[in-house]
Amino acid sequence: DMLLGKDSVGEPGRVAQEAIELVRLRFEQVGYTNPSVWGAALSDANTVLTSVTKNKNYYLTNSVDKEVTSSIIDNKVTPLLMNLIDSLRNKDISSTTVAQDKTAQAIEELRYSLFPKNKLPYKIPDEFKSFPRLQGRAHVALTIKSNSKQGFLLADTKTRTPTATFLITLDGYHSPITTANFLTLVSKGLYDNIPIDKAEELTLQFGNIPSGNSKEKLIPNPIPLELFYKNDKEPVYGITSDDDLRATETMALPFQAYGAVGMARANEDPDSATSQIFLLKWRQALIAPGRNTLDGFYNCLGYITSDNEQLLSQVTTNDVITKAVVLDGLEYLKSSE
């Protein structure tokens, strides 16, 4: 069975995920020039390795597809972990950062391989049963065309490209209604050939369809604010963490990563979100989860999981989303109950 909230405390997958996240947090909070941080991060990486390799039978026993889970452990998690450990031993911050990010994604993939497909381990409240929900994970490719003649400068600082395609991973297990809303709009083409509405210091925003636009008919009825606290077993609806007196608690999907995907809404109404999406372009890891201005106020429905999220910093309001495509996951989209 899929474990959520406090039930997952001590579960090998959660132990591994928290340890691999701690590797990143140590360097972001302490810095890499402190000699002691390298030993502490190496210890964290070894905790991950132990949690995965010594508990392989646990993962296989609880897997939906044993062959897939075994392949993730043997061909992704383990070799990536060994690369991370080598980088930590060599005290190479550049390779450590890359290795940590890739290992974290592999650990997440391992955990999701245990989750049941097309099923939620809780019931949606009766008052929201009419809303579509995503009962699993889905992936969307978002392509943005630069309006500048130079285009986007890639990570090698030499190559330029006129377009950038970002892979977005949506988490329906922790955000079923909000992810379903976005996935439905992507499948209907609402985000094709629309401009970037805002390009601010910390976020990009898109999906504001002007009155009279032919796509206006695609805008859905507002959806409720949907928050999943890390220690809960189901989402909370229609109330911010401040109003719920839970502002210091951690979210299951926190705004703690460059490329986090959020659902915009009117500030005064938590249940007013329709089609506007924002992308975070600032690492909030230096701020404790539950202590920033986004967690508990907006819904985080997933993350950019391609290796090019840093290109978001080059996107401006002159740029255009040429295409948003559902790559997979529509089979987990349920219209309503």
TrEMBL record:
Location of the PPIase cyclophilin-type domain: 153-337
InterPro entries xrefs: Cyclophilin-like_dom_sf, Cyclophilin-type_PPIase_dom, E_coli_cyclophilin_A-like
PROSITE patterns: CSA_PPIASE_2
Alphabetical keyword list: Isomerase, Rotamase
Catalytic activity, EC: 5.2.1.8
One term of GO molecular function: peptidyl-prolyl cis-trans isomerase activity
SUPFAM superfamilies: Cyclophilin-like
Origin: domain of life: Eukaryota
A Pfam short name: Pro_isomerase
Enzyme class: isomerase
UniProt keyword Cytoplasm present: no
PANTHER family hit by this protein: PEPTIDYL-PROLYL CIS-TRANS ISOMERASE CYP38, CHLOROPLASTIC
Protein name: peptidylprolyl isomerase
Protein's organism: Chromulina nebulosa
